[in-house]
Write a structure and sequence with these properties.
Blueprint lengths: L12 E7 L10 H17 L2 E8 L3 E8 L4 H20 L12 E5 L1 H13 L1 H4 L14 H4 L12 H4 L5 H10 L7 H13 L2 E2 L2 H11 L14 H9 L2
Parallel strand pairs: 4-5
Antiparallel strand pairs: 1-3, 1-4, 2-3
């Protein structure tokens, strides 16, 4: 089966996940994470991709970002991936692939899902039982979005800036989003859309993206059409 073509659109937010091959470790030390973040910063700026949220786990990475052109994210991730694999193989005296194929991504409707996906990303260490509070995990954007830590990597999203009239109000409003865990249905929707390269949004958003890109970004019906056998027989008698 041919792999699904990646869908990207200038100005439309995307959730990215990249995993280690066979879920192997991709960050074995703090120096590894610092190297990855450094190249992410370099290439996000080079290819004009705004980074709004991230988390670096032991064997995978989540990024929420907005490209200024349709090729920006692919260029950023390809350049970042090549540099980091070369670094990792050299450092640990290994050869071969590090990543589990291509990175996965989905388009995100900002009005409904942007902050939910940001929350999903920054709660990863909590769901993995690595920390009890996302504020205790250093390698995510939570300390920036919720606590005001400065980072050259971060570009606040317009949806985020509407949370309050100043930084303190925005941070307090953002922290309030973390008072409860994410519902199971939303977790599944985010994971399915990202793993299958779909879009996360309402029907109007999905229709707009499909019209804009000419690609299907919603889950199609499985199985054969109801009248497939009758239509096949009819076609064979023409």
């Amino acid at each position: 089966m041919a792999r699904r073509h990646r869908v990207s659109s200038a100005g439309v937010d995307e959730h990215i996940i990249q995993r280690g091959n066979n879920r192997q470790v991709i960050f074995a030390s703090e120096e590894d994470i610092q190297a990855y973040v450094g190249w992410l910063k370099t290439y996000s700026k080079k290819y004009n991709v705004s980074i709004h949220a991230w988390v670096l786990m032991t064997n995978h990475v989540h990024i929420l970002c907005t490209p200024s052109n349709i090729s920006g994210i692919s260029q950023m991730m390809q350049s970042l991936g090549r540099m980091y694999v070369a670094y990792f193989n050299r450092r640990y005296k290994r050869t071969g692939t590090l990543w589990e194929g291509r990175f996965k991504s989905c388009l995100v409707q900002e009005e409904t899902y942007l902050l939910q996906v940001s929350r999903y990303i920054e709660l990863n260490p909590v769901r993995a039982s690595m920390v009890d509070d996302p504020a205790d995990y250093f390698w995510s954007s939570y300390q920036c979005n919720a606590l005001g830590k400065k980072s050259e990597l971060l570009t606040p999203h317009p949806i985020y800036t509407r949370l309050g009239g100043n930084e303190k109000e925005r941070q307090a409003s953002y922290r309030s989003l973390f008072a409860s865990q994410i519902e199971d249905k939303l977790l599944e929707d985010i994971r399915q859309a990202t793993n299958k390269g779909l879009a996360l949004g309402n029907e109007h958003f999905l229709a707009d993206i499909e019209a804009l890109t000419g690609r299907r970004v919603s889950e199609g019906k499985r199985g054969r059409p109801v009248d497939w056998r009758k239509n096949k027989i009819w076609a064979s008698t023409k």
